[in-house]
User: Fold this.
Amino acid sequence: MGSTASTPAGPVEAAQRAEQLRALVRYHQHRYYALDDPEIGDQEFDALFNELRALEATYPDLHTPDSPTQRVGGYVADRFEKTRHPAPMLSLANAFSPEDLRAWRDRLHRLLSEEERGRLAYVVEPKFDGLTVVLHYADGIFTLGATRGDGENGETITANLRTVRSLPLHLPADQRSPLAPPARLVVRGEAYVDKADFERFNARQAEAGERAYANPRNFAAGSLRQLDSGITAGRPLKIWVYQALIVEGGPALPSHWESLAYLRDLGLPVCPDIRRFTDDDFDALAAYVDAFGRRRHELPYEVDGIVIKVDSLGMQAELGFTGKDPRWALAYKYAGEEAVTTLLDIVVNVGRTGAVTPNAVLEPVQVSGVVVKSATLHNEDYIRDLDIRIGDKVVIKRAGEVIPKVLRPLPELRTGEEREWTMPETCPVCGAALVRPPGEAATYCVNNACPEQLVRAVEYFVGREAMDIAGFGIKQAELFVAQGYIHDLADIYELPWDDIRALEGYGDKRVDNLRAGVEASKERPIHRLLTALGIRFVGAVVAELITQHYHSLLDLMAATPEALNEIEGIGPKIAESVREYFSVDSNRALIEKFARLDVRVAEEAPAAPVGAQPLAGFTFVVTGTLPTFSRDEAHDFIKAHGGKVAGSVSGKTSYLVAGESAGSKLDKARQLGVPVIDEAELRALAGEA
Ligand SMILES: [Zn+2]
Assistant:
């Protein structure tokens, strides 16, 4: 398949072609995003998509609200309108143990007749930890989407939801399906971000000096509540649909399980981890709930428990509510993840950039089998916004391997003895005044001579990503700074080795090895030294980009922000940060000191490749795992053939070279219409057989 049609001769042909293209694009989007089973390559898909976009641009009348081209976003709202939900959104009663689960079942047995008990069955589904949304379809067309809001009224975020790729704008999503769309359909679902996509996004944000999100849930919520849907379109949002609220003009659906099957048949994304159990099989249900709890950290999406519902909608109606909680549903929360303990104190730690982070000192408590004594509190605003006070009982969470964090205080347990906390005015290590730059969440110790900053800076300098000095870590950094051997980073190359031999635990062999490691690091490529300096926003990727253009750090010192900004992948924020760094005299002196101590600060520009330069004039971004090239080899290959390499996809990117497990860069390329090629196609472009 592919797009072979020539430009339509007139409006009628154009309308026919647009209809055909919309159907094709929808079909392939559904295969790709909902079924994860694409039939055509990215390039073919892009060709269809771009042809449709071009047609709609030429004939604006052809532009329909459900056109797949709407997914690129671009609608900017002043504020969100309110939508009244057709039925109030529910809260669920909680269960925390297998005993609670059985007690709930016993209660159902008492409330139901013997005949009903014989038909009793349950649906078990993950309790997704995202943002609840309500989606409205009229005659199969997605017309309105809203947040949960206060349960009765939500915020209308239709334009933003249109950008979520796994959400069909048109039902049935597969145009070949024989199903007729219902006249009216309202469903409930959860918008979320996969854990891996979240990590990738945050890593990029951190490197670019942008705000990082605390967890996938906040990220999903923040992304959906953007007034500019163009921003939402750039976020890796997904949706699971898990409840039919209203079905008019559709089949009779007597049970939750059947309604889920119907939603799935219409092409709505229904999570495959949903199960049905009969009442006779309640032991199997309990075993499933238990097993799900043990594997929940391995799921690609975040859950905060599992929900068990009575399957029959008739029985649901009969069982009704106690207060706000339906009797027919239960949220099972897994033990261990969260715990309540006392916040004994808040202390601040100084990092290598001087950023000062508040940390919680906790009454030790067991969480998921580990004793937790401290937890992160992120920054000053986090503590103030949640009104966390010293002495509070706080809920802490430890999930997987991440650092435990304080989720919230329990103000209802306050005794009146609790104390509010404020960020200290001076650095706890060096006593210098702390500064919080306007518009930033972080507070900094701006004293360049702060010993704690120096220890952290040395630790970073010698680390894997940077100068990679074996045997040199935080212990050595602390010791050598404390001994007065290191006052700036270049002192690492002037360590008094004879004195070190006299220190306890530093025998000849150990010192010789350490010294050899330090000597060897002098020859590292200059992008590593640039990374090691720890300039804000200049991580390993950015440093490599810069040193493709500046082959000497001495030249880089003299570069203007404008010149840096010219480099593909270097934005104004990074350029300004580099300028600021080199505007400080002591930093310039540091580079000169490195040069004097024979640390490589310049390298020869790569020899101009001889022969044909078939990739000249093209800029490439490489992502995912390629079949034979490593990332570096692919970069070298592109450069050797005259092409340029960039770190992120933008309008200036000519091609995205994508391998296995390509992530957000692939999404970005699709949105921007950047052609996506594989390794073989790259080789072919470069003229290799
Ligand atoms: Zn300090």
Observations:
- Residues 350, 427, 429-430, 432, 445, 447, 450, 452 surround zinc ion (CB under 6 Å).
- The radius of gyration is 29 Å.
- The mean pLDDT is 86.
